[in-house]
Amino acid sequence: MVALLVFGVTLLAAVLISELADRTIVSTAVLFLLAGVAVGGGGFGLIRLEPDSPVVGHLANYALVAVLFTDGMKLGWGRLRSAWVLPGRALLLGLPLTMLATALLAHFVAGLSWLDAWLVGAVLCPTDPVFAAAIVGREGVSRRLRHLLNVESGLNDGLALPIVLGILAVGGVAERSLGLHVVELAGGCALGVAVAGGALWVARLRFFGIARSHEPFLLVAIGLMVFALAPLVHANPFLAAFSAGVTIATMRPEETEENNAFAEQTAELLKLGAVLVFGALITPQLLHAVPWTGYVFAVLSLVVARPIALGLALVGGKLTGREKVAAMWFGPKGFASVIYGLMVLNSGVAGAVRSFNLVAIVVAGSILAHSSTDVVVARWLEPKAKAT
């Protein structure tokens, strides 16, 4: 109950300063992170959690499934086909280059073994648009830049997951073989398409009629069914949620635009709760356990690895100079990285604790840096976006 009270108080504070946050560098995500640090083991000790605590894993899983589901509902196949070039470059070239650059930094700067370095590179290559909300959600920013960041962040979580599982399997520390992981991932995609497609087909039958007041719950029901069915049929719940969202956006794009507000708000609450819990994990012990080379790695992974990788991927792309700089900078790390980091922590890899500590430092630094600069960069972009 203490955790729920802290979350409620922090949520109230976030609501009260939300208008200020929309206009300044003040960030509600940072507020929840700092609140978690304050009440966690490194602060007043009201909430004491360890990275392997069940509540951490459960909340992170719920948040990521909700994020992937709502991200998918923004990315119907028609929309993807209409403007695929820039996101395709970011995903097919920028993502592996980011992973490569991060892995090299993790090995040569942070001193990780090659296996741990590649794992950290894979864990930290996904991006999260939540911490750059002023960019993705601001109408004054060009559509092509918003589309690029939306599609990239919507798809790279799912692309990074099989890489993480594959490295663990090749390293001999995964619970299941690489082949079983592939089957699980493919099963997740199939499950999401089947459940979402079947539910929407049933909803169209003349026998049924959905009241307008209940329309948003159709999407929530699909998401809950996919999440509950995935473990029962040994399918990956994350890819199942994402493919279900894409299926909804493809079959009924007009419905997702009108009725996904409830699903997005639910996902936002889960994400903010996950940020609070993540903040509670940032203790003096964790900070002290990271050597100075780890902090150098964290800075370089944010200001060198992603910018250089995406800059190379976008060479020749139809973006203005300012748009390219914004895309290179806004590669925020979020919930996917935390969850994949927890997978590594529980995998039995020799350097798992050290790897997770590095991931935690990078994610915390990303939340602070990207959430505090999105409004500034958005205003910098807007004059150039009016003609786009």
Automatic annotation (TrEMBL):
Keywords: Antiport, Cell membrane, Ion transport, Membrane, Transmembrane, Transmembrane helix, Transport. The keyword Cell membrane applies. GO terms for biological process: proton transmembrane transport. It holds the Pfam family Na_H_Exchanger. The keyword Translocase does not apply. Its main location: membrane. GO terms for cellular component: plasma membrane. It is found in: Cell membrane. GO terms for molecular function: antiporter activity. It is a multi-pass membrane protein. Residues 13-372 form the Cation/H+ exchanger transmembrane domain. InterPro entries: Cation/H_exchanger_TM, Na+/solute_symporter_sf. The chain crosses the membrane at residues 31-49, 90-111, 117-137, 158-174, 180-203, 215-233, 292-315, 335-353, 359-381. This is Cation:proton antiporter. The lineage of its organism: Bacteria, Pseudomonadati, Verrucomicrobiota, Opitutia, Opitutales.
